[in-house]
Amino acid sequence: MEFRYLGNSGFKISEITFGNWLTHGSQVENDVATQCVRAALDAGISTFDTADVYANTAAETVLGEALKDERRESLEVFTKVFGPTGPKGHNDLGLSRKHIMEAINGSLRRLQTDYVDLYQAHRYDYETPLEETMQAFADIVRQGKALYIGVSEWTANQIRDGHALAQELGIQLISNQPQYSMLWRVIEAEVIPTSEELGLSQIVWSPMAQGVLSGKYHPGKPAPEGSRATDTKGGSRMIERWLSNEVLTGVQQLKPIADEAGLTMAQLSIAWVLQNKNVASAIMGASRPEQIEKNVAAAGVTLDPAIMDKIDGVIGALAERDPAQTKSPASREA
Question: What is the pTM of this model?
Protein backbone atom coordinates (compact mmCIF):
# COMPACT_ATOMS: atom_id res chain seq x y z
CA MET A 1 0.00 0.00 0.00
CA GLU A 2 1.15 3.50 -0.84
CA PHE A 3 0.29 6.61 1.20
CA ARG A 4 -0.29 10.21 0.16
CA TYR A 5 -0.52 13.51 2.01
CA LEU A 6 -4.04 14.86 2.34
CA GLY A 7 -4.07 18.43 1.15
CA ASN A 8 -1.52 20.91 2.40
CA SER A 9 -1.03 19.06 5.68
CA GLY A 10 1.30 16.55 7.26
CA PHE A 11 -1.48 13.97 7.41
CA LYS A 12 -1.07 10.81 5.30
CA ILE A 13 -3.79 8.40 4.21
CA SER A 14 -3.74 5.16 2.24
CA GLU A 15 -4.17 5.44 -1.55
CA ILE A 16 -7.17 3.17 -1.18
CA THR A 17 -9.83 4.13 1.34
CA PHE A 18 -12.34 1.54 2.44
CA GLY A 19 -15.88 2.97 2.34
CA ASN A 20 -19.14 1.39 3.50
CA TRP A 21 -21.74 3.57 1.78
CA LEU A 22 -24.12 1.15 -0.01
CA THR A 23 -23.26 -2.02 1.82
CA HIS A 24 -22.67 -2.14 5.56
CA GLY A 25 -25.74 -1.96 7.72
CA SER A 26 -28.02 -2.42 4.71
CA GLN A 27 -27.01 -4.70 1.83
CA VAL A 28 -24.69 -7.19 3.53
CA GLU A 29 -24.84 -8.96 6.88
CA ASN A 30 -22.77 -7.55 9.72
CA ASP A 31 -20.44 -10.55 9.90
CA VAL A 32 -19.60 -10.20 6.19
CA ALA A 33 -19.10 -6.47 6.67
CA THR A 34 -16.63 -7.21 9.45
CA GLN A 35 -14.82 -9.69 7.20
CA CYS A 36 -14.51 -6.95 4.57
CA VAL A 37 -12.97 -4.59 7.13
CA ARG A 38 -10.53 -7.32 8.18
CA ALA A 39 -9.60 -7.90 4.54
CA ALA A 40 -9.01 -4.17 4.08
CA LEU A 41 -6.70 -4.07 7.10
CA ASP A 42 -4.85 -7.17 5.89
CA ALA A 43 -4.36 -5.48 2.49
CA GLY A 44 -2.68 -2.50 4.14
CA ILE A 45 -5.63 -0.10 4.02
CA SER A 46 -5.56 2.21 7.02
CA THR A 47 -8.19 4.75 5.95
CA PHE A 48 -11.91 4.15 6.47
CA ASP A 49 -14.75 6.39 5.32
CA THR A 50 -18.38 6.35 6.39
CA ALA A 51 -21.22 8.80 7.15
CA ASP A 52 -23.98 9.08 9.70
CA VAL A 53 -26.61 8.96 6.94
CA TYR A 54 -25.42 5.59 5.58
CA ALA A 55 -28.08 3.02 6.48
CA ASN A 56 -29.46 5.68 8.85
CA THR A 57 -26.42 5.46 11.21
CA ALA A 58 -26.10 1.65 11.06
CA ALA A 59 -23.01 1.77 8.83
CA GLU A 60 -21.09 3.77 11.45
CA THR A 61 -22.08 1.24 14.10
CA VAL A 62 -20.86 -1.68 11.99
CA LEU A 63 -17.54 0.04 11.25
CA GLY A 64 -16.99 1.01 14.87
CA GLU A 65 -17.54 -2.55 16.01
CA ALA A 66 -15.20 -3.93 13.33
CA LEU A 67 -12.37 -1.53 14.27
CA LYS A 68 -12.77 -1.41 18.04
CA ASP A 69 -9.82 -3.68 18.81
CA GLU A 70 -7.40 -1.98 16.40
CA ARG A 71 -4.73 0.52 17.49
CA ARG A 72 -6.55 3.82 16.96
CA GLU A 73 -3.39 5.77 16.15
CA SER A 74 -2.72 3.47 13.19
CA LEU A 75 -6.06 4.25 11.56
CA GLU A 76 -7.58 7.21 9.74
CA VAL A 77 -11.33 7.26 10.37
CA PHE A 78 -13.56 9.63 8.41
CA THR A 79 -17.25 10.38 8.68
CA LYS A 80 -19.67 12.96 7.31
CA VAL A 81 -22.61 15.12 8.37
CA PHE A 82 -25.52 16.66 6.45
CA GLY A 83 -28.13 14.07 5.50
CA PRO A 84 -31.23 13.18 7.51
CA THR A 85 -30.73 10.74 10.37
CA GLY A 86 -32.75 9.27 13.23
CA PRO A 87 -36.46 10.03 12.97
CA LYS A 88 -35.57 12.66 10.36
CA GLY A 89 -37.07 15.55 12.26
CA HIS A 90 -36.75 19.21 11.29
CA ASN A 91 -33.30 19.57 12.91
CA ASP A 92 -32.03 16.10 12.03
CA LEU A 93 -30.29 17.23 8.85
CA GLY A 94 -28.29 20.05 7.32
CA LEU A 95 -25.25 21.97 8.53
CA SER A 96 -26.74 24.06 11.31
CA ARG A 97 -24.73 24.38 14.49
CA LYS A 98 -27.34 22.33 16.34
CA HIS A 99 -27.23 19.43 13.91
CA ILE A 100 -23.43 19.41 13.54
CA MET A 101 -22.76 19.46 17.28
CA GLU A 102 -25.28 16.71 17.94
CA ALA A 103 -24.20 14.68 14.91
CA ILE A 104 -20.52 14.51 15.86
CA ASN A 105 -21.37 13.16 19.29
CA GLY A 106 -23.58 10.47 17.77
CA SER A 107 -20.93 9.52 15.24
CA LEU A 108 -18.21 9.22 17.88
CA ARG A 109 -20.44 7.03 20.02
CA ARG A 110 -21.28 4.70 17.14
CA LEU A 111 -17.68 4.57 15.91
CA GLN A 112 -16.46 3.87 19.45
CA THR A 113 -13.74 6.50 19.26
CA ASP A 114 -12.90 9.80 20.94
CA TYR A 115 -12.21 11.59 17.65
CA VAL A 116 -12.40 11.27 13.89
CA ASP A 117 -9.41 12.17 11.77
CA LEU A 118 -11.54 13.94 9.16
CA TYR A 119 -15.06 15.35 9.60
CA GLN A 120 -16.73 16.23 6.32
CA ALA A 121 -19.68 18.36 5.24
CA HIS A 122 -21.48 15.78 3.14
CA ARG A 123 -23.09 18.43 0.93
CA TYR A 124 -23.34 22.23 0.87
CA ASP A 125 -26.22 23.64 2.93
CA TYR A 126 -27.88 26.58 1.18
CA GLU A 127 -30.19 27.14 4.14
CA THR A 128 -27.55 27.73 6.81
CA PRO A 129 -25.06 30.63 6.78
CA LEU A 130 -21.64 29.25 5.88
CA GLU A 131 -20.18 31.21 8.81
CA GLU A 132 -22.36 29.22 11.22
CA THR A 133 -21.29 25.92 9.69
CA MET A 134 -17.58 26.69 9.72
CA GLN A 135 -17.69 28.05 13.27
CA ALA A 136 -19.28 24.79 14.43
CA PHE A 137 -16.56 22.81 12.65
CA ALA A 138 -13.90 25.00 14.24
CA ASP A 139 -15.34 24.36 17.69
CA ILE A 140 -15.35 20.60 17.05
CA VAL A 141 -11.68 20.74 16.06
CA ARG A 142 -10.81 22.74 19.18
CA GLN A 143 -12.71 20.26 21.32
CA GLY A 144 -10.51 17.49 19.87
CA LYS A 145 -13.43 15.63 18.34
CA ALA A 146 -12.04 16.03 14.80
CA LEU A 147 -8.49 16.66 13.64
CA TYR A 148 -9.21 18.01 10.16
CA ILE A 149 -12.20 19.27 8.19
CA GLY A 150 -13.29 18.30 4.69
CA VAL A 151 -16.24 18.75 2.36
CA SER A 152 -18.00 16.59 -0.21
CA GLU A 153 -19.45 17.55 -3.59
CA TRP A 154 -18.86 21.28 -3.10
CA THR A 155 -18.35 23.50 -6.13
CA ALA A 156 -15.12 25.40 -6.69
CA ASN A 157 -16.66 28.65 -5.39
CA GLN A 158 -18.08 26.94 -2.31
CA ILE A 159 -14.69 25.40 -1.58
CA ARG A 160 -13.05 28.81 -1.95
CA ASP A 161 -15.52 30.44 0.46
CA GLY A 162 -15.21 27.62 3.00
CA HIS A 163 -11.43 27.67 2.82
CA ALA A 164 -11.32 31.43 3.47
CA LEU A 165 -13.50 31.08 6.57
CA ALA A 166 -11.46 28.12 7.80
CA GLN A 167 -8.31 30.21 7.57
CA GLU A 168 -9.94 33.02 9.53
CA LEU A 169 -10.98 30.52 12.21
CA GLY A 170 -7.55 28.89 12.36
CA ILE A 171 -8.56 25.41 11.21
CA GLN A 172 -7.51 23.29 8.23
CA LEU A 173 -9.93 22.53 5.40
CA ILE A 174 -7.89 19.95 3.54
CA SER A 175 -10.12 17.77 1.38
CA ASN A 176 -13.09 17.38 -0.91
CA GLN A 177 -14.89 14.09 -1.53
CA PRO A 178 -16.37 14.11 -5.05
CA GLN A 179 -17.49 11.47 -7.47
CA TYR A 180 -14.72 10.84 -10.01
CA SER A 181 -14.10 8.17 -12.61
CA MET A 182 -13.30 7.69 -16.29
CA LEU A 183 -17.00 8.33 -16.93
CA TRP A 184 -17.55 11.20 -14.47
CA ARG A 185 -14.95 13.96 -14.83
CA VAL A 186 -16.92 17.02 -13.75
CA ILE A 187 -14.31 18.08 -11.17
CA GLU A 188 -11.48 18.43 -13.67
CA ALA A 189 -12.35 21.86 -15.07
CA GLU A 190 -12.89 23.89 -11.88
CA VAL A 191 -12.79 21.92 -8.62
CA ILE A 192 -9.35 20.39 -9.07
CA PRO A 193 -7.58 23.62 -10.15
CA THR A 194 -9.17 25.49 -7.21
CA SER A 195 -8.23 22.70 -4.80
CA GLU A 196 -4.64 22.67 -6.04
CA GLU A 197 -4.45 26.42 -5.53
CA LEU A 198 -5.87 26.29 -2.00
CA GLY A 199 -4.14 23.12 -0.78
CA LEU A 200 -6.98 20.58 -0.78
CA SER A 201 -6.88 16.99 -2.04
CA GLN A 202 -9.65 14.87 -3.49
CA ILE A 203 -10.84 11.66 -1.82
CA VAL A 204 -12.87 10.27 -4.68
CA TRP A 205 -15.88 8.00 -4.55
CA SER A 206 -17.22 5.65 -7.20
CA PRO A 207 -13.96 5.27 -9.18
CA MET A 208 -15.55 2.22 -10.84
CA ALA A 209 -18.73 4.14 -11.75
CA GLN A 210 -20.85 1.98 -9.45
CA GLY A 211 -19.17 -1.15 -10.83
CA VAL A 212 -19.82 -0.45 -14.51
CA LEU A 213 -16.10 0.00 -15.22
CA SER A 214 -15.42 -3.50 -13.89
CA GLY A 215 -16.83 -4.77 -17.18
CA LYS A 216 -19.40 -7.09 -15.63
CA TYR A 217 -22.32 -5.39 -17.38
CA HIS A 218 -22.69 -6.16 -21.07
CA PRO A 219 -24.74 -4.32 -23.70
CA GLY A 220 -28.03 -6.02 -24.52
CA LYS A 221 -27.75 -8.51 -21.65
CA PRO A 222 -29.52 -8.52 -18.26
CA ALA A 223 -27.53 -7.39 -15.24
CA PRO A 224 -25.85 -10.18 -13.27
CA GLU A 225 -27.96 -11.50 -10.42
CA GLY A 226 -26.95 -9.92 -7.12
CA SER A 227 -25.18 -6.99 -8.79
CA ARG A 228 -25.75 -3.35 -7.86
CA ALA A 229 -28.01 -2.88 -10.89
CA THR A 230 -30.46 -5.40 -9.40
CA ASP A 231 -30.39 -3.94 -5.89
CA THR A 232 -33.70 -2.36 -4.89
CA LYS A 233 -32.33 -0.64 -1.75
CA GLY A 234 -30.66 2.20 -3.63
CA GLY A 235 -27.94 0.65 -5.75
CA SER A 236 -29.98 0.34 -8.95
CA ARG A 237 -30.95 4.01 -8.85
CA MET A 238 -27.30 5.10 -8.58
CA ILE A 239 -26.06 2.97 -11.46
CA GLU A 240 -28.84 3.38 -14.02
CA ARG A 241 -27.24 6.35 -15.82
CA TRP A 242 -24.34 4.14 -16.93
CA LEU A 243 -26.36 1.22 -18.28
CA SER A 244 -27.00 2.46 -21.82
CA ASN A 245 -25.75 0.25 -24.65
CA GLU A 246 -23.48 3.07 -25.84
CA VAL A 247 -21.68 3.33 -22.49
CA LEU A 248 -21.50 -0.42 -21.93
CA THR A 249 -20.11 -0.96 -25.44
CA GLY A 250 -17.42 1.64 -24.81
CA VAL A 251 -16.53 0.12 -21.47
CA GLN A 252 -16.01 -3.30 -23.02
CA GLN A 253 -13.34 -1.74 -25.23
CA LEU A 254 -11.29 -1.15 -22.09
CA LYS A 255 -10.68 -4.90 -21.68
CA PRO A 256 -7.68 -5.16 -24.06
CA ILE A 257 -6.23 -1.96 -22.58
CA ALA A 258 -6.46 -3.44 -19.08
CA ASP A 259 -4.86 -6.65 -20.36
CA GLU A 260 -2.01 -4.64 -21.86
CA ALA A 261 -1.46 -2.93 -18.50
CA GLY A 262 -1.55 -6.27 -16.68
CA LEU A 263 -4.63 -5.25 -14.68
CA THR A 264 -8.24 -6.24 -14.36
CA MET A 265 -10.75 -3.68 -15.61
CA ALA A 266 -11.66 -2.83 -12.00
CA GLN A 267 -8.00 -2.31 -11.11
CA LEU A 268 -7.52 -0.16 -14.20
CA SER A 269 -10.40 2.13 -13.24
CA ILE A 270 -9.05 2.65 -9.72
CA ALA A 271 -5.50 3.16 -10.96
CA TRP A 272 -6.80 5.71 -13.49
CA VAL A 273 -8.18 8.09 -10.84
CA LEU A 274 -4.96 7.75 -8.82
CA GLN A 275 -2.94 9.07 -11.77
CA ASN A 276 -4.38 12.51 -10.96
CA LYS A 277 -1.93 14.05 -8.50
CA ASN A 278 -4.69 15.97 -6.74
CA VAL A 279 -6.37 12.68 -5.81
CA ALA A 280 -5.09 11.49 -2.45
CA SER A 281 -7.20 8.35 -2.25
CA ALA A 282 -9.85 6.36 -4.07
CA ILE A 283 -12.74 5.01 -2.02
CA MET A 284 -13.47 1.34 -2.59
CA GLY A 285 -16.46 -0.51 -1.22
CA ALA A 286 -17.01 -4.23 -1.07
CA SER A 287 -19.72 -6.74 -0.35
CA ARG A 288 -17.23 -9.64 -0.29
CA PRO A 289 -13.68 -9.75 1.16
CA GLU A 290 -12.18 -11.13 -2.05
CA GLN A 291 -13.16 -7.95 -3.90
CA ILE A 292 -10.78 -5.99 -1.70
CA GLU A 293 -7.94 -8.44 -2.14
CA LYS A 294 -8.18 -8.09 -5.92
CA ASN A 295 -8.80 -4.37 -6.30
CA VAL A 296 -6.23 -3.13 -3.80
CA ALA A 297 -3.59 -4.09 -6.38
CA ALA A 298 -4.41 -0.78 -8.09
CA ALA A 299 -2.46 1.06 -5.39
CA GLY A 300 1.00 2.16 -6.47
CA VAL A 301 0.35 1.53 -10.18
CA THR A 302 1.74 4.02 -12.69
CA LEU A 303 -0.09 3.95 -16.00
CA ASP A 304 1.96 4.67 -19.11
CA PRO A 305 0.87 7.84 -20.99
CA ALA A 306 0.06 5.66 -23.98
CA ILE A 307 -2.37 3.65 -21.86
CA MET A 308 -4.03 6.85 -20.63
CA ASP A 309 -4.39 8.01 -24.25
CA LYS A 310 -5.96 4.72 -25.26
CA ILE A 311 -8.47 4.98 -22.42
CA ASP A 312 -9.46 8.44 -23.56
CA GLY A 313 -9.73 7.19 -27.10
CA VAL A 314 -12.36 4.57 -26.31
CA ILE A 315 -14.27 6.16 -23.44
CA GLY A 316 -13.39 9.84 -23.20
CA ALA A 317 -16.27 11.00 -25.41
CA LEU A 318 -18.75 9.18 -23.13
CA ALA A 319 -17.64 10.99 -19.98
CA GLU A 320 -19.72 13.65 -18.22
CA ARG A 321 -17.57 16.77 -17.87
CA ASP A 322 -20.01 19.61 -17.12
CA PRO A 323 -18.85 21.41 -13.93
CA ALA A 324 -22.48 22.31 -13.21
CA GLN A 325 -23.07 18.65 -12.35
CA THR A 326 -21.21 19.26 -9.08
CA LYS A 327 -24.12 20.33 -6.94
CA SER A 328 -25.87 19.88 -3.62
CA PRO A 329 -29.62 19.67 -2.98
CA ALA A 330 -31.29 23.08 -3.36
CA SER A 331 -33.02 22.47 -0.04
CA ARG A 332 -32.31 20.12 2.82
CA GLU A 333 -35.39 18.10 2.00
CA ALA A 334 -34.46 17.63 -1.68
Answer: 0.91
